[in-house]
Amino acid sequence: MTLSAYIDYVILPILGLSLLLVFIRLVRGPSVVDRVVALDLLITIGVSVITVYSISTQKSTLIDVAMILALIAFLGTIAFAYYLEKRGRK
Amino acid sequence: MTAILIGILCTIGALAILIAAIGILRMPDFYLRLSVTVKAATLGGGLLLLCAAFYFPDEVSVTTKALAIIFFLTLTAPVAAHLIARAAYFIGTEQWKGTVRDDLAGMYDKETHTLGSGKESGGD
After folding, report:
1. Sequence ranges of the domains in chain A
2. Transmembrane stretches, by residue range (chain A) (predicted)?
3. B76 falls within a domain
4. Strand partners, B108
5. Of A52, A85, B45, B67, which residue has the fewest beta carbons closer than 10 angstroms?
6. Domain span at residue B59?
7. What is the pLDDT of residues B22-76, one digit of tens each?
8. How many CB atoms lie within 10 A of CB B57?
């Protein structure tokens, strides 16, 4: 079994299942902060999926996309936290 | 040999991410969800990025980028988690009914959002 087939048939389905579980929490989440954390985790798993896919297809250019996505996830969470705290203070 | 190493690292990373996903779905409380998510997902993502760093050994730029993403993830995940937990505490996210103690209760100033030690009013 080659590494590419192992990634395609074992690793990527596990990551896809994780994305599905996190997405359920994103839809159901009782409060706003639950949704923010679920979104952050969703983007982190997305970075992992892109990395694994670049190993599987041997296209190393995709790592750049993962880097930008990690930056955007951090900025998004910081912005959500800042405005949620500001809204609570009035 | 490298393929076996990458396979083992990939498996551990994917299982850590799966544990994080199950945790965020099953935990009863926002703070417990946050505690599970940040650590396990950072570990899993870091291991999968380490696989990419090992897999493209003759392209130095790719290895450098993968290591830079790992460094950035481990640097920013605790900061983001701290900020969102702080915001959640301020807007009054309710805790699990089995929570035993809350050390922050009454320590935050409601107006200025500064953290006190709880001994200001009792002292001289």
Report:
1. 3-89
2. 6-24, 36-56, 62-84
3. yes
4. B115
5. B67
6. 2-90
7. 999 999 989 999 988 899 999 999 999 999 999 988 888 999 999 999 999 999 9
8. 10
By Cβ distance, the residue of B3, B30, B83 closest to A78 is B83
Give exposure, A41-71, as e/b (b: 16+ Cβ within 10 Å).
bbbbbbbbbbbbbbbbeeebebbeebbeebe
Q: Give yes or no for residue B86 having a pLDDT over 50.
A: yes
In the numeric block, which tokens belong to residue B81? 């988690």
**Bridge partners (DSSP) listed for residue B115:** B108
Residues of B in contact with A31 (CB under 8 A): 30, 88, 93
Size of interface A-B (CB pairs under 8 A): 156
Residue from the list A3, A25, A85 with its beta carbon closest to the beta carbon of B6: A3
From the CA of B30, how many Å to the nearest CA of chain A?
6
Q: How far apart are CA B91 and CA B88, in angstroms?
A: 5
Domain-embedded: residue B104: no
B115 touches chain A (CB under 8 A): no
What does the alpha-carbon distance between residue A34 and residue A31 come to, in Å, rounded to a whole number? Answer: 6
Global ipTM: 0.91
Q: How far apart are CA A60 and CA A48, in angstroms?
A: 14
Instruction: Enter the pTM of the model.
Output: 0.89
Output the six-digit token pair for B47: 């291991």
Q: If you search the block for the tokens 């409060």, which residue do you land on?
A: A31
What is the number of structural domains in chain B? Answer: 1
| CB contact (8 A) between residue B17 and residue A78 | no
